[in-house]
Structures are given as structure tokens and as C-alpha cells.
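### Sample
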Amino acid sequence: MRQPAHAATRREVCREFVPGALVVGAGLAGLATALELAERGIPVTVLCPSTPGAGTSSELAQGGIAAALGADDHPRLHARDTVRAGGGLVDGCVARRITAAAPGVVAQLQRWGATFDSDDAGTLRLGLEGAHGRHRIVHAAGDGTGAEVTRAAVAAARAHPGIQVRAGVHVTRLLTDASHTVVGVQATGALGPMTLLAAAVVLATGGVGGLFAHTTNPLDSWGAGLALGLRAGARVRDLELVQFHPTALAAPSPGAATGRLPLISEAVRGEGVPLVLEDGSPALADPLAGRDVVARGVWAALRAGHRVYLDTPATLGTDMSRRFPTITAACRAAGLDPAADRIPVRPAAHYHMGGLVVDARGRTDVAGLWAVGEVASTGLHGANRLASNSLLEAVAAAGHAAADIAAHAPGAPSRPAPTGLADVSADVSATALRSRPSASDRGLLEEAAGVLRDGPSLLAAAARLREGAEHDDARLVAYLLTVAALRRTESRGAHQRTDHPEAGPAQHTYVDLGDLHDAAELGTGFAGLVGLVGSAS
Ligand SMILES: Cc1cc2nc3c(=O)[nH]c(=O)nc-3n(C[C@H](O)[C@H](O)[C@H](O)COP(=O)(O)OP(=O)(O)OC[C@H]3O[C@@H](n4cnc5c(N)ncnc54)[C@H](O)[C@@H]3O)c2cc1C
């Protein structure tokens, strides 16, 4: 939603130094970071546009949280599956560290009040999802895992005296001092613009699905945190690596012209439900192959004029509503009864593997700025995230970042109140920074950077998205995504170039704000961007 034009000129209603840390975003990553900080004695202020947990990807998560808890399982096997799924770009050390932390993450969520599905003896029920070699998916209320862990984290955060939640606040820019250290944020709230200064700022703003025409994400997940970080000087790694979920419900959310599609979790296929064409014949040989493989298979069938369905009546039948109540409700809202009707599906933008470059402590490469959750690139997901590894990562990484902040930015501000603030976005109005991508930009990006990509389409989209990207955060992220996709002249994981079908050397791409300015300086139309293509670093 665009702000009214006068918003940027409204008088600042508040300018204050908050003790401890500022956390931007109240999905699972932001809430877990706040709790981990508060439990270490660091005061926290959480900023979020609506009530905490609402409008987040976290609350929509269905399948669950991956953790090697079964008698036949081990974190090493979980790490191995994570590395295998990631198409050569997973950092093995990160995979080992986070999968080893997974059983503790489940226990931590239980301590915060989450209840997971278990048998009569209290043993957790473990589901199976694509590309996992073992049953290791911890879930709640069948397919309501995200709602349950978010509910618990919100309640725990509200109950903690060290956490202050300021709802209705939208962060529009990061503030840096003369040494390029992040020292606070500028934000807008119901009463007007405000400036909040703190010893540490943590971005936990989620993913980028809202940049695409079809997505399972809330439409406000369009990469605002990436833009904030980029404008403060941070680098983004593998921006082009977007996972398309193969089975979004091929009907929009009820009553909404939003374009957000309900997800039909992989756990449904894990229960043996096949993907079929309209005549009932199998759509794919292995419906539990990696997400990228299944998404391409479904996309190819749709492109060939077929329709693709999950055949729930033939397999789960009336068990569907017991095992998957959330999905059943979404289908019913779209006029389908999954016990009797096959569920029509299509791929949709789902998860961003790329993100702000962070180290093992969640530090970005800008001092004073940490990033946690989907906005960050830890190295866990490579070119293709393994199912149910992101809620896990959000909580595990929250602990790592909180420990680092507690050690280096204690509750009493470790730095003197900043002087000589350099507002990194001083030339950009708050109006532009709060923009949501237009429907035409979303269509353009999906056409060029969807399940299948090619150089000419990416180049044409980049040329159009470049216009106005200086003053429009969503365009900035969409434009740089096309630049990164042009640089990756190969096919790997979720990034498939029809003009470069083979994998090249396994390497990351990086973009920063300089890539916007480089293109602007070309001066001879957009063709000069071709010179930048192929320079993956
Ligand atoms: C339908 C669906 C199903 C999924 N199922 C699973 C699953 O089963 N298992 C799994 O592991 N993963 C799953 N995922 C992925 C997982 O849910 C997300 O990766 C994860 O929840 C991201 O958490 P987050 O806290 O980083 O972001 P989010 O939960 O999206 O929270 C982001 C927060 O940042 C706020 N924010 C954004 N911009 C600003 C700003 N400028 N100022 C202030 N606040 C801002 C938002 O309002 C929100 O509060 C699923 C995702 C979807 C969409």
C-alpha cells in the first residue's frame, strides 16, 4: 500500500534512544530473537506493522519443523539431506551446526508454550517430507505448525517484562553514523514518522514472495528488509535463488484480489497422495523429489496444456480433514472438498534462499546490523531449501544472534549516543520507501524470473525495473534480483536458465547498491548491463 504523499513531510512524533536492541519484524525469527535477548537480560523493542505474528509467513507455515528425533535418525543424516537438496551451495558447517541445534529448537519452542502432535505416550509424531531420508518433521494441529509456534512465541514475548512490542510501526530506513555503523531506524506509525536509536538493530523482515504474481507468502513479504540493508551498505547473496513451491492451490484466497495462494503442504504428498493429470495418469515419476524438480515437472505439464491435481480422494479421502484441517479449510473456502475433489495445483514463489549476507553470529557486513530468519542468507539452504528447515533456522539463528548481541551490545548502550547521523537514505522520501510492488511489476518479475528463466527475458525485465528503482524499495529488490539472475549463467537448484541448462562452477552471486548505480552510469541505454552479465563472484 502506498503512503499518502504528505506522509514524508509530517512532523516527527518521537525521537528516542531505546535501551538494548531493536528487532524489526514479529514473525518467528523476530519473536525468537526478542525472547532469546530478553532471556539474556537485554531489553528489546520489537517493531511490526500490525499485531505481532499477524501477516507473517511464520503463521502460515504448515508442514512443520525438521529435527532428527527419531530412533533411526541423527543430525548428521539431517545435515546430509540438507546439503544434498541445496544444489552444491549449502555451507556444510552451517548445515551441521543448525541440524545439531534442531532437537534443542523443538524443546525451546515447547518451553515457550508450543504444543506439537504426539501419541498417547507423549512421543512426538514425526512426518515425512520431500528429500528427507527419515521421518523427522515435528508438526502441530496436523498442518497448523506455523500458527501454533507463532501463537506460543507471541504469548511468551507479551509475557516477558523485558520485551516491548510496538505494533503499527513500519520501518522505512536504517540510520547510520559517520562511521557507517547502524545506530537506529526511521519508521512510520499511526501518529507519524519517528526515529528510534539503539545499540543493536536486528532485521527479521521475512521473504520476497510478494514480488511475484503468484505466491504463498503474505503480499507484504516483498523484501523490505533487503532494501533497508542494501541502502545501509549491506550485500545480498544469491538474491536470484527463490524457491517455487510446486503445489499452491490453483485458486486465489477467498474474497481477496490479493494473488496469495494457499499452500498445499508437501506433507500431503508425504502421506502418499500422488500428483496426477486431468485423466488421472501420474504427472511425475517421483512426487517426493526435491522441490525444484517437482515444481519444474508441474510447470512443464501446465505449459503443455494439462491441469495438475493432488489426488486426495483416491488416497486420504475423509482422513484428509483429520490430518490436514488447515488445508481442508482452504480448499473448502475455494469451493472444493478434498475428500471428494482432486485439488488443482500450480507452482508459486514460496521461499527466498538468498538474503543479507550474515556470519555464524547473524552479523551482516554493516556494523550494528544483524539479520535473522528468511531475510538472512546463512548458507543453510543453498540453491534449494530442504522442506521444514526454515522455521528451524529462524529459531536457531535467533539464539546465535542474541548471544552475540548480548556479548557485544549490552543493555546499557555500549556506544555513546550517536552524533552526526548520516541518513543513508536522505535523498529518498518515506513515501517511496514504503511502496508495495505493483501488479504489473509482479507479473513482469514472474514472467522473467519464474520457474524457468532466460537471458533475454531477464534483460528486458531488468531494463524496465531499473526505472525508478532509486526511489522505490520493491523495484530496487526486483531489479537487483534480475541482475543476480543474469549473472548466474547456469542452472542450479531453483534457478533454471533455459539458455544455460547446465550447472557451472558452484559459486554465490552478490549484489549491493553499487549495482544500481553502475547501471545508472552506463548512460547508453540498458544494453550496457550485458557487460555486467556473467560476472558471478
Ligand atoms: C504458506 C507457507 C508455508 C510454510 N511452511 C513451512 C513449514 O512447514 N516449515 C518451515 O520450516 N517453513 C515453512 N515456511 C517458510 C517459513 O514460514 C518462513 O521462512 C519463516 O516463517 C520466516 O520467518 P521470518 O520471521 O523470517 O519472517 P515472517 O514470518 O514473514 O515475519 C516477517 C515480519 O517482518 C515484518 N516486517 C516486514 N517488513 C517490515 C518493515 N519494513 N518494518 C517493520 N516490520 C516489517 C512483517 O510484518 C512480519 O512481522 C512456509 C512459508 C509459507 C508462506
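Residues 1-9, 411-433, 521-525, 530-537 have pLDDT under 50 and may be disordered. This sample (L-aspartate oxidase) is used throughout the tutorial notebook.
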